[in-house]
Amino acid sequence: MAIVAATSENIDRAATLLRKGGVVAFPTETVYGLGANAFDVNAVARIFDIKGRPSFDPLIVHVLDDAMLRRVVEDIGPQAAALIQHFWPGPLTLVLPKRSEVPDLVTAGLPTVGVRMPAHPVARALLERSGMPLAAPSANPFGRLSPTRAAHVERGLGDGPDLILDGGPSPVGLESTIVAVDLRPALLRRGAIAAEDLEAVVGPLERPPEDPANAPLSPGRLPQHYAPRTPIRILDFEPVPSAERAEAGALAFRAAPAGYAAVRVLSAAGDLREAAGRFFESLHELDLAGVTRIDAEPLPERGLGAAMMERLRRATFSA
Ligand code: TXA
Ligand code: MG
For the chain, how far is it from start to end, CA to CA, in angstroms? Predict the structure, then answer.
């Protein structure tokens, strides 16, 4: 299969594939992305095809530097500039007015484009050597758990991508935070950078509703998302009877509950950053553990805890 180690030679091979219209899965600090040349409509169409993604969901475009950013976006206001200065390269996506050269297929016809400058050395080397902005959603089948390892990509997408670059586990483990910078900046998706940290730079953000069932169906806000194949519910472990525990898996925050068939603890120290790094990984493992249900303990609703809760709620939501 097409998993290869992210050596210098293989990054060159990937860059060549991308220049020829190929689709390559690569590591970023957040999760693995499924990338193609953002200006090549046919290559971008293959991304949708491989993911089984509805084409109304726009993609994030990854850029190496300021020069590459200018090829994608029209203008950058003072608030976007301040966020860029503080948080790039890193796990923040900004939704900005797009240049006309960016195909409508990338943005689902929106006049804006989501862009981010990744920090991961493999992603950066790939951007540099291919010389082009890369449109890349998370490299998972539509609606499923995001991949934080090359093996997750292979399990989900099989031989869909032309190549999967293995750069080890994604260090952050949670997708980028998405902010639309209009007159008033708005938080479109909670993620790897806590909303509170962004607000320290640009002031109050418009916040999305906590319950995705009440969220409007705007791009990127589909209620069912990030879901393991195993049914999942969010609840305190305490009242769950032992008969129910025996067949179920548990996603715990700090302490392992007794009696579950499989347990993953996100952070014994109660560190939300460490927990985020293990979040998707743990869900992938529980999903493969042969349990009939996953019980997830509620996490503190602040910072990265709020970002993980948003994903858990979407995973539990069934339309
Ligand atoms: O960390 C990440 O952001 C990862 C890595 C690979 O960079 N990418 C990622 O992409 O999570 P994806 O496609 O799975 O999620 C991107 C979200 C989508 O839900 C999409 O609707 C939203 O970003 N989005 C992209 N462009 C947008 C735009 N112009 N307006 C509003 N939402 C947008
Ligand atoms: Mg995704």
Answer: 35
Contacts of 178-187 spanning 24+ positions with Cβ under 8 A? 178/93, 178/94, 178/95, 178/114, 178/220, 179/83, 179/92, 179/93, 179/94, 179/95, 179/205, 180/94, 180/95, 180/112, 181/77, 181/79, 181/80, 181/83, 181/94, 181/95, 181/96, 185/79, 185/83
Does residue 93's CB lie within 6 angstroms of at least one atom of ligand 1?
A: yes
Q: Could you identify the atom of ligand 1 that is nearest to the CA of residue 175?
A: 1
Written as six digits, the tokens of 223 are: 């209620």
Atom 22 in ligand 1: which residue has the minimum CA distance?
220
Residue 218 pLDDT: 46
Quick check: CB of 114 below 6 Å from ligand 1? yes
Identify the structural domains of the chain with CATH numbers, from first to last.
3-202 (3.90.870.10), 232-316 (3.40.50.11030)
The predicted-structure confidence for 13-44, as pLDDT tens digits, reads as follows 999 999 999 999 999 999 999 999 999 999 99
Mean pLDDT of 197-225: 70
DSSP, residue by residue, 71-129: TTBS---HHHHHHHHHH-SSSEEEEEEBPTTS-HHHHTT-SEEEEE----HHHHHHHHH
How far does CA 265 lie from the centroid of its chain?
Answer: 21
pLDDT-derived band at 105, boundaries 50, 70, 90: confident
- Ligand 1 pocket check: which of 48, 144, 175, 222 to mutate, most ligand atoms within 8 Å of Cβ? 175
